[in-house]
């Protein structure tokens, strides 16, 4: 099943009309808390993004408890720091299930950590809702559900929408440099880029890989400058994109065009050398996304709380939106089934769609993946603005 853009826009409007709770009164939750367990990268190389997910979860739980909690009970998030280490993540999820005895699970940040958590969830028959798993073919467990609407074949669909965006803006590349971390999700997408580029007649002039955790990008920058591509495709995670752009700046090279798959959103906005850089998104803090009143309320609260927390950016974008959507999935499934039973929740999710701030999500495709709702955004003068497709572009925005 596919959702055309016009139908999706109508669904987004209906979501705002039916789920806004701003003026309603709710009974205070009582009784034993519903405990939802998970970990995040609060320290280590992924912490710049992990903190965005932490703040988002805190906001959602605060709002949820104001609305009566789950099943009339207050909700408690049992959160642990996995330090950006997949092996530690596995241990922490074992603890959450066996020692902490949480009722439900929510996934960590990052594909490798989620895969570790997924193995634990499968061993104990727990449903796992997660938000940033980028290799759908590895998501074999039938009780896992993904909130970032990336579709079942992002290695094909993500490069396609990026190349389409460039072509629509009269910036179709003739040459391409693919530089990528070996981190599973970004590497998976980057390998797909090579195939899609070949099919479109785009000549690959450079392909480089680095081990996750690398901090010396000088040699990579030098190779990029020598290749001088029309487009740099960066399979970069977190601050890696900033580090590459900084290394390029030090050798007096400004990319003609660059795309970065999963950058740290705030730091990229603040780097002058990142102006006009492209990335992927499902939601940004501007219309038409914020025409949905639930989304508008979340973006306002996030802005206030992120400012108080001194986060590098105080605007909602793809990471916060995917995280918020994961909490919405849990909320919807528990409310619909009136149960904390993992199998009942999983059965309901496979059979139903869930309203989220990015639109209606479904889970009845390959490996419980649904539609690809990706858009292309660009850094423009310190803001992330969607530029493609045009019906989702920020008012007045176009590709630079």
TrEMBL record:
Short name of any one Pfam family annotated for the protein: Peripla_BP_6
Q: Residue limits of the Leucine-binding protein domain?
A: 33-382
Which domain of life does this protein belong to? Bacteria
Q: Which CDD domains match?
A: PBP1_ABC_ligand_binding-like
Does the UniProt entry include the keyword Signal? yes
- Tell me where the transmembrane regions lie: none
Assigned keywords, A-Z? Amino-acid transport, Signal, Transport
Q: Which InterPro entries match?
A: BCAA_transport, Leu-bd, Leu_Ile_Val-bd, Peripla_BP_I, TAT_signal
Q: Which family does it belong to?
A: Belongs to the leucine-binding protein family.
Q: What is this protein called?
A: Amino acid ABC transporter substrate-binding protein
Organism listed in the record: Variovorax dokdonensis
